[in-house]
Amino acid sequence: MTAPTALLVLAHSRSTSLTARAADRARRRLERGGFTVDLLDLHAEDFDPRMTIEDEPAWTDPGKGYSAGTEAHMRRIEAADVIVVVFPVWWFGLPAILKGWIDRVWNYGFAYGRSTPRLHGKRIVWIGLAGYSEEHFTSTGWDESLTRTLTVGISNFCDIDDVKVHLVYGTVPDQTARAGHAEDILATAEAGLDRMLQPMVA
């Protein structure tokens, strides 16, 4: 039996960041679960988040071909059984490089706009690291807003129904500098992924 494939997307510029460390934990957890992991480090691979003319959607042509780089990313998504996205929550949303990846790669005719959806049946896990405490973040409703965007606005819109969003709070440097706190955050992120993946690897 062929091992399932996980596309692990990392959206942080520093390889030593807490986000990158959380992604590494996710990679190890996925591998322990029997997944073959395709790590897509958007910064390390120098992904350009700016929309180009070549990658603008053609609303009358769902079969339009896109740039070679974008098509390569599309193939990596298609090859994955599960997509795990690890990112810092900036301005209560996605960092620019990740938003640009969605804009350019999750494009018309690929992720949506076809009578037979190409991403149907895939699973996706979003792991966001937020600086604010959980109390502060949730008191203003930002957890609901971000979760709705990731679940309904992106995943469900592209016919992915199995969606999990896990937000990890209190990740700003002055908090993570406390002894053991960074490790607690990483353990929380991994535990969230473990709960979400359990039905897939049981």
From TrEMBL:
Question: SUPFAM superfamilies attached here?
Answer: Flavoproteins
InterPro entries associated with the record: Flavodoxin_fold, Flavoprotein-like_sf, NAD(P)H_dehydrogenase_qn
The Flavodoxin-like fold domain covers which part of the protein?
6-184
Q: Which UniProt keywords apply?
A: Oxidoreductase
Q: Which NCBIfam families match?
A: PRK09739.1
Q: Which family does it belong to?
A: Belongs to the NAD(P)H dehydrogenase (quinone) family.
Q: What is this protein called?
A: NAD(P)H oxidoreductase
Origin organism is Actinomadura vinacea
| Upper taxonomic lineage | Bacteria, Bacillati, Actinomycetota, Actinomycetes, Streptosporangiales
